[in-house]
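Let us practice reading a record.
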Amino acid sequence: MRIAVTGKQGQVVQSLLRRGAETGIDISAVGRPEMDLANPESIAAAFSALRPDVIVSAAAYTAVDKAESEAELAFSVNAAGAGAVAEAAARIGAPVIHISTDYVFSGDKASAYSEEDATAPISVYGRSKLAGEEAVAAANPNHVILRTAWVYSPFGTNFLKTMLRLSETRDHLRVVADQTGCPTSALDIADAILAIAARVVADPAPSLRGTFHLTGSGEASWADFAEAIFAELSKSGGRNVGVERIPTADYPTPAKRPANSRLNGDKLARTYGLRLPEWKQSMTIVMQDLLNKGL
């Protein structure tokens, strides 16, 4: 199985490349300068040359706050670019696995969101990602859209790595406690993508296509996540960092965040037999990876 993934530096891309190296699966990362999501003509040419069995659409404009003032760019990449990737996959007869986000929901629901719940994004980023989902579905019926949330990994910039960096100089941190989600390891996402890719290549069943939720099991607030990070850090001899739990109102940002980012993964479990590990378990694995490297 040959897999091509959009982007080169993202957390999911880097996690897929690691898993590819570990398992011997042929994974090619395609990104700038040879392919630019803001330049649709470059997309078709890149995939025509590679002829992969599956295309993973992982690259995106992810600067959530900056998107409020760069809406045109966000939509160019997250909507038009995603649609062009799906169209390129359709042209070569390949399924596309597209990574989306909890930000397509408003966050007003009291319980975890299912795939059947109405979307209602409250930020430019969320609207651009929802437009991307629609563009992917329209361009290629042979698609799997995976909504995930609160992604962290040993790669790139993410909440876990930020907390570890701040712990080097801070004894106390103020962290939002009234936003709830499902922390998700990008390494777990990569494992799921590889399993899904193998199934959709081998089985044309329509039930394997569509939109699914893919997040770590369990739930947490950002403050819960931070406390778990620091508790694990203390076990490894790190600094004991205190967490002050604050409301979102005390940490204003240009873009609104969903108060509830919890995603229900039952559909993925029923369809593919996949459910990601409990988030603290995966967090510990990623932390040990980072701490062993001295990061």
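A brief commentary: The chain has one domain: 2-157+183-218+262-279.
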